[in-house]
Specification:
oxidoreductase; 5 helices; about 25% helix; EC 1.4.3.5; nine-stranded antiparallel sheet; FMN
């Protein structure tokens, strides 16, 4: 057995107080995101964990990249026929989480995921490098394949087919918008007395703000 009981760290880089937070969680998320970006150390600040309830009834989490956020919500892209895509189609209740170790911060977002308009996915797909476009086409994400060579051979064939022409977005690939209904901000503090502030969406489109015990 690997005993990890002595893995300990003191959290003392910042604090999260009600007197210094906005009424809207997106504004606070924006502030934190750019503070982490400016601080450096997190090579992909937009890396987040997406958790879904699978068709087998089990929760599953995986890391994807956040591509846009606004008052409307949080957008990421995937293969709609993938395991996560099918899970979201069956149950759109998802959880997003960010852990930024450099500033000892975590954000957990509960929300509802919906496909974004096709034209929005088209615009983003057009902005991707050709290699990424072909990768989205060649990979039947989450499906069992015989070997690595199988993917590489299919990619080589597609490179020949699309040489010198526009690569279209496949219909099975696009974005999801996650509309937040609850956002929790966690700031590490000394002696494990961490700061936890939760925003809960209300029927009048305002946000209820509560402090949670660490």
């Amino acid at each position: 057995m690997n005993d990890l009981s002595n893995y300990r760290k003191s959290y003392d880089k910042s604090e999260l107080l009600e007197s210094s937070i906005p009424e809207d969680p997106i504004n606070l998320f924006n502030r934190w995101f750019h503070e982490v970006e400016d601080f450096g150390g997190d090579s992909e600040v937009n890396a987040m964990t997406v958790s879904t309830i699978g068709l087998d009834g089990f929760p599953k989490s995986r890391v994807v990249l956040l591509k846009k956020f606004s008052e409307e919500g949080f957008i990421f892209y995937t293969n709609y026929n993938s395991e996560k895509g099918k899970a979201i189609a069956a149950n759109p209740h998802v959880c997003l989480s960010f852990f930024w170790h450099t500033l000892e911060r975590q954000v957990i977002i509960k929300g509802i995921a919906n496909k974004i308009p096709a034209i929005t996915s088209d615009h983003y797909f057009e902005s991707r490098p050709n290699g990424s476009k072909l990768g989205a086409i060649v990979s039947n994400q989450s499906e069992v394949i015989p070997s690595r060579e199988y993917l590489e051979e299919n990619l080589k064939q597609l490179e020949g087919e699309y040489e010198g022409i526009v690569i279209p977005r496949p219909e099975y690939w696009g974005g999801f918008l996650v509309t937040a209904i609850e956002v929790e901000f966690w700031q590490g503090r000394p002696n494990r007395l961490h700061d936890r502030i939760r925003y809960s969406s209300q029927d009048d489109f305002s946000w209820k703000i509560e402090r949670l015990s660490s």
